[in-house]
Amino acid sequence: MDILLLEDEIILNELISESLTESGYSVDCFFDGEEALNSIKNKKYDLLLLDVNVPNINGFELLSYIRDIDIQTPTIFITSLNSIKDMEEGFRTGCDDYIKKPFDLKELKLRVENIKKRLNIVSEERTDLKGGYKYDYKNKAICKDGNYFYLAKKESQVLEYFLKNRDRVISLDEIIANIWSFDDAPTYSTLRTYIKTLRKQLSPNSITTLKGVGYKYEG
């Protein structure tokens, strides 16, 4: 699980990073909102941990901006802003959780685990799909009855994004924003080709189209 940590207090940044790394997470640390934003645009994260009062772009502004461009990465605010008004602002911008400083590192890890479970961020090597199919995360392959269909890198990333968001309608823009960087974003036609390939290898009607809205994986 890849986590971005934005915290400008050096000691707290180090403590959080060390604690999460010891728990098996990969953590990229930032002390500046603008640098964190640039990394979010160019790398897919599973979770964002954002302080609010940081240099250049504060946490509220950063999250509001990435939600506007349809990056839906789960986000927890970690902040000393502890009024109800501040908390309302945090959830209004699109966060999934809000932790008031000071907090216990164990509490943070529990909340991270909760996000992980709720969003079905998988750690197992295989997961069951509709119609008796399985997806092999390690080998990036769809398999059934001993037959394997190996996916290209982006095809596997698209499928894994569907699996993290089962039974939820996902737009083309959301898929692109959460898998590709700005510089190499594909055309809608290219992304539809990836989805068409996946459909051929999965149980019929696993990926449904909602015209003018997006796609939904059901399985």
Structure, briefly:
This protein is α/β, with parallel strands linked by helices. It has helices spanning 10-22, 33-42, 59-68, 84-93, 105-118, 153-164, 172-179, 188-201, and strands spanning 2-6, 26-30, 47-50, 75-79, 97-100, 126-128, 134-136, 141-144, 147-150, 207-210, 214-217.
Descriptive keywords:
219 residues; alpha/beta; Rossmann fold; Arc Repressor Mutant, subunit A; 2 domains; 4-stranded antiparallel sheet; 8 helices; 11 strands
What does this structure look like?
With 219 residues, the chain is an alpha/beta fold. It folds into two domains: 2-118, 3-Layer(aba) Sandwich (Rossmann fold), CATH 3.40.50; 126-217, Winged helix-like DNA-binding domain superfamily/Winged helix DNA-binding domain (Arc Repressor Mutant, subunit A), CATH 1.10.10. 42% of the residues lie in helices and 21% in strands. The chain has helices spanning 10-22, 33-42, 59-68, 84-93, 105-118, 153-164, 172-179, 188-201; strands at 2-6, 26-30, 47-50, 75-79, 97-100, 126-128, 134-136, 141-144, 147-150, 207-210, 214-217. The strands form three sheets. It has a five-stranded parallel sheet, sandwiched between helices. Strands 6-7-8-9 form a four-stranded antiparallel sheet, with no helix packed on it. A two-stranded antiparallel sheet has the order 10-11. α6 (153-164) packs across α8 (188-201). It is globular. The model has no long low-confidence stretch (mean pLDDT 90).
